[in-house]
Amino acid sequence: MKTNSAARTYRLPIPTSDGEFIACYSGHGLCGLKFPSGAMGRKRAAGVARPPAQVREWHAAARQALKRALTGQAPGSLPPLDLSSGTEFQQCVWRVLRGITPGRTRSYSEVAQAIGRTEAVRAVGGACGANPIPVLVPCHRVLAANQGLGGFSGGLKWKRLLLAREGIELPS
Q1: Per the domain annotation, does 127 fall within a domain?
Q2: Which domain holds residue 47?
Q3: Quick check: 130 and 165 in contact, CB under 8 A?
Q4: For residues 21 and 14, is the Cβ–Cβ distance under 8 A?
Q5: How many domains does the chain have?
Q6: Whole-number Cα distances in Å, 4 to 1, 8, 32, 47, 56
Q7: Which string of b and e fits 57-85 if b means at least 16 CB within 10 Å?
Q8: pLDDT value, residue 145
Q9: Strand locations in the chain, DSSP E?
Q10: Per the domain annotation, does 170 fall within a domain?
Q11: Residue 24 catalytic?
C-alpha cells in the first residue's frame, strides 16, 4: 500500500469457486482485478487497516458482479471503475469492450472500427492486454478475425473458460 492516504490502493480478496481474485481500489473506484494465483493470498499483509466504508461498498458490488460474470451472466451493477491508468486510446477501447454483452464477441478489427481507428488492430490487442479489470471489462470477448482466441492477460485457459460459460462455441 502507498503511504499517502489520498493515493492509497486497497487490495481485497474475492474468493470464488475458481480461486481467489484480488480486487484493487483507488480513491476513485475499482482500479484492478487480478486472477487467482497460489501466491496471492500469502502476499496479503496481516494487520492492514480496514478499508473505508466507501471501499467496502465498492467491494461488495465487485464481489457480486464478479460472481455473476464467472457464471456467464451480465455482471449487473458495478462499482465505479477507475480506468485512469490507461492512455486515452486504451480508455476508448475499454469503453467499447464494456458494450460487448455476454454471449457475444467482437474481433480486434471490429473494435478498431468502433473507435474510428481501423488501422489500429494491433494496438487494440495491446489495449485489451493492458486492461486492468479483466472479466468485468470483458476483453475475453475480443477474438482474432478468424474467431481464433488471440491472446488474454489471464491466459488462454481463462479465456476459453469465460467464453464457454457465456455459451460461446469456438471453432476447433
Answers
A1: yes
A2: 5-69
A3: no
A4: yes
A5: 2
A6: 9, 6, 19, 18, 19
A7: ebbebbbbbbbbbbebeebeebbebbbee
A8: 83
A9: 10-16, 19-26, 29-34, 106-107, 142-143
A10: no
A11: no
Together in a domain, 13 and 58: yes
pTM reported for the whole predicted model: 0.88
- The Cβ of residue 162 has, within 10 Å, a number of other Cβ atoms equal to 23
Cβ contacts of 108 within 8 Å, gap of 6 or more: 121, 122, 124, 125, 128, 142, 143, 144, 145, 150
Q: How far apart are CA 41 and CA 26, in angstroms?
A: 20
What's the whole-number average pLDDT of the chain?
Answer: 90
Distance of CA 77 to the CA centre of its chain: 15
State pLDDT tens for residues 70-115: 999 999 999 999 999 999 999 999 999 999 999 999 999 999 999 9
CB 128 within 8 A of CB 54: no
**Spacing of C-alpha 126 from chain mean position:** 14
Indicate if 107 and 59 belong to the same structural domain: no
Q: Residue 20: is it exposed, middle or buried by C-beta count within 10 angstroms (0-12/13-18/19+)? A: middle
Same domain, 161 and 104: yes
Mark out the alpha helices in 76-155 (DSSP H runs): 88-98, 108-114, 121-129
pLDDT of residue 147: 77
The residue annotated as part of the active site, out of 31, 92, 128, 139, is 139
Quote the cell numbers at residue 127.
Answer: 489495449
